[in-house]
Amino acid sequence: MYRFFFLLGIWLISFNIKAQDEHIKVIKDFITIPAINVHKPLFADVVNINGLVFKDANLLKYSYLQDHDFRPQEGDQLEWDNFKVLKWKKTSTNKDGILSIKRSNADFQIVYLAFYLQNNEWAKIEIDFQSSQMLEVYVDGEKQKGKYSFQKEGEEESLKIKANLEANNHVVLIKSLYSKEESSKWALSCSVKVKNEKNKVELISGLMPYEYMNINHLMNGVDISSAHISYAGDYYFINYKMTNQEGESQNITDVKRLSDGKTKQIFYGNSAYSFEWAPFDNVLTYTTQLGEKSWIWQYNLETGKRFPIATDLVDINGYTWSPNGEFLILSKSEKPKTNNSGLKKIEGMPDHWPWYRNRSNLIILDVLSGIQTPLTFGYLSNNVQDISPNGRYIMFSQTVYDLSQRPYSKQILMQYDKQKRKIDTVWNKFGDSRVQYSPDGKQLLVLAGPAFFGEVGINLTKAKIPNDYDKQAYLYQLNTKEVTAISKTFHPSISNAMWSPTNSDNIYFNVSDRTYIYEYVYSISKKKFHKIELDMDVVNSVDFAEGKPVMVYFGSSISTPKKAYKANIETGDKQLLSYPEENFFKNVKFGENEDWNFINNEGITIEGRLYFPPNFDATKKYPMIVYYYGGTSPTERNFRGRYPKNLFAANGYIVYVLQPSGATGYGQDFSAEHVNNWGQTVADEIIHGSRLLCQTHSFIDSTKVGCMGASYGGFMTMYLTTQTNFFSAAIAHAGISSISSYWGEGYWGYLYSEVASANSFPWNNKKLYVEQSPLFHADQVNTPLLLLHGNSDTNVPPGESRQFYTALKLLNKDVELIEIDKQNHHIVDYKKRILWQKTILAWFDKNLKGESDWWFHLYPNRKL
């Protein structure tokens, strides 16, 4: 479809169809290309291996185009063979609704025609074509039906196409075959009728290719997954994940020269993986698989030479380069002997995890000689943290689970002196951290929770217990063990960090800054953070060259898919490297968005944002969806996502996303509100903010407001329905209905609770575990509630939804439970995720728009 060039402009010929109208409306305007001469192949009369000859209908069935998933408009050009360029033009029917197609004197010709149907809600339609010629019909690129016989004039057979259209602007493409021998007339007529049973549907016919975001845009396309620049700064690679409409994905790694953007090498599929730039020159390393064994390769982009660094590796799951380029640290996985008895004694709470008994150990691989030397052994896993710049020291860690105090695990950090073959313990303390050597190797940059070093990193004015998910940055002097908390008064939460390769005074931080993800640079001497302007809402990753002041990065914005750029660190100049989905979204109309904040009862600003439907009209009334997480992470302004706000808005909803108290990225006081709260503050903020928004915005229908969330947000949905009748519909995906059962079940319940319910347990804080659990207030629910849950969820077990469903059913409440088979906490199966996403929209359409056809199409009533 990228061969078609769309022009600007608007030209809309429209008519309205009501579901109650028995009169059939006629399509009067099409766009079409000139007829194309086609010919039967040589030896068409000779039977093939199946005893068949080539028939006229085969000329229509043959796919001349690679696909039919394109959206033409008047003036677009279609390239054909033999340098022929065909232009799409508008053509109209006569007063009787019959379209005559201009033909030549050739024996066989085909023609493509198109028009668009826009519907404001889910619609069941029937399109009726009348023609004496053969036809094939496609809707949104998918073949619907074909008529493969000719008729005499006056005896035309009807070709009826039945289609279920989700709210959008849909392209109807007709391919027609003309036979000179069969008829002298080439004509067709087309009419459309809405078949919805109960609701009025506005259907508009037009000739423009605009569309609104749909499931296809959510699930398919080309996604950037990583971008990295070489040590010398002359080359970079970008990893892409391409997904088609069949749900088939392929990984592509494109290695390019930075100066001119020319491709040096492309890797497809799983032919290679674990791409890393070596810490010298422009050398790329990667892994290939040969049976059960893996090879690590080195590829010099300048000379074109490549050779294996290591061969026939078994159970290696990763490698780390030493900064001096002399060796690699290999991580080798080890699995315990299989127990075939069918009985398993659980050795502590983590032993519920299927992978818990697996271990990893470290191997030193000398690059020049190829010699592999085991570095670690034993019953604890060992993980590389960093290697000193001169390659002499290796920092690695072990984790020991210890239930004697929060946070129930200790980190043992050790430094190995490769030269002296000596090991020293840096610390053995409760908590978890990531560390990185300074350029001189004398100190560590540490990323950890506020309480990791005791009071050093805590900055609270009200609460007593900090939120350990609010990651902070520290400097740790290796010789004196002195700790400096450098982000203590810096409100954003630290995600990743990297010491500047060109200036040892600077550290780069990727942070959650409220609902944004930004890149900051910290000056050690000035003790100041400075935001780097990278012109996007969510900066997913930044990578720096060592040899030049240049970096590459990629990310997205609230209504813009991912792009990759390069930037000069010194001048700030930027250049676009890749915008893989520019054409994919070229004709997609997005609604506007704006920030909307309010002040809570404590005088604290609660931030939020609004997404507006495309073609928003402030004089109309719109239903609204309120989305939240409510847990410890903010809802970022990223594009797409599992709960795509742009998709909800495209279906005619105002979407309100707010960041209640407890989220990281707003400072430690704000994030500490999450601890031992479990919905009290958050529910009040969601209800107050939603009510206030309706009161101050006349275009929101306050009687048609829905709410939804997942995981902790699913708990919030359940809890909200016990606290208010304000919402007209609610959706909880993987929600928690009883805090005590969640705490003791699942893979991570007790670990998440050691932050969210710090020092509180069912035996010492019954008020929290009972009064804040929706299950114990099920009789207060009056909101139509949809419960969604993967039946293989290991995080929040499906019993959390099942027991709430049981309670509400016994109470005769309006509730539905839909379980997604063989899906975990996130719905990742391609086809199941599409149906799950449609279920969400159909539920809101049913309860907020009074449009139930889609819901009952997906889930017809059954008597069991």
Description:
By secondary structure, the chain is mainly beta. Among the domains are: 185 residues, Jelly Rolls, CATH 2.60.120; 101 residues, Tricorn protease N-terminal domain (Neuraminidase, 6 Propeller); 266 residues, Rossmann fold (3-Layer(aba) Sandwich), CATH 3.40.50.1820. Helix content is 13%, strand content 39%. The chain is built from 12 helices and 55 strands. The chain starts with 24 loop residues before the first strand and ends in a 6-residue tail after the last helix. The N terminus is likely disordered.
CATH architecture of one domain: 3-Layer(aba) Sandwich
Number of helical segments?
Answer: 12
How large is the share of residues in beta strands? 35-45%
How many angstroms separate the termini?
Answer: 47 Å
What is the level 1 CATH name of one domain?
Alpha Beta
CATH superfamily of one domain: Alpha/Beta hydrolase fold, catalytic domain
Helix content: 10-25%
* Largest sheet features: 8 strands, antiparallel
Count of extended strands: 55
- What is the CATH T-level topology of one domain? Rossmann fold
Rounded to an integer in angstroms, the radius of gyration calculated over CA atoms is: 31 Å
What is the average per-residue confidence, as pLDDT, rounded to a whole number? 93
